[in-house]
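Query structure, 95 C-alpha cells:
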C-alpha cells in the first residue's frame, strides 16, 4: 500500500479533484463536506444578521463580528489537523 500522499498522486484525475484538498486538511470527502456545510450555514446566518443590522442598526449589533471571530477561531487557531504547507504559509483556510 502506498503512503497517503502517493495514493492521491496515482489516483484517477476526476476522483483526485474531490479528495486532494480534504486530505490536505486531514479529512475525508464527507467529513470535509460536513465541515464546509456547517461553516457555510453559520456564515449565511451571520450575513443575514448583518443585512438586518444595516437596515435596523440597533439589531444584531455584535452578531457579525462574533460569528467571524468564532469561525476564525474554529478554523485557524484551534485546528489540530495536519495542514498543507502552502495553505499554512499564507494563513489561508480552505473549507
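Result returned for the query:
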Amino acid at each position: 500500500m502506498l503512503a497517503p500522499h502517493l495514493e492521491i498522486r496515482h489516483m484517477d484525475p476526476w476522483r483526485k479533484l474531490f479528495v486532494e484538498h480534504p486530505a490536505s486538511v486531514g479529512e475525508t470527502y464527507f467529513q470535509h463536506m460536513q465541515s464546509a456545510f456547517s461553516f457555510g450555514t453559520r456564515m449565511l446566518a451571520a450575513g443575514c444578521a448583518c443585512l438586518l443590522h444595516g437596515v435596523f442598526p440597533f439589531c444584531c449589533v455584535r452578531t457579525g463580528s462574533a460569528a467571524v471571530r468564532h469561525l476564525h477561531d474554529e478554523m485557524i487557531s484551534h485546528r489540530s489537523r495536519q495542514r498543507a504547507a502552502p495553505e499554512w504559509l499564507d494563513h489561508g483556510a480552505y473549507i
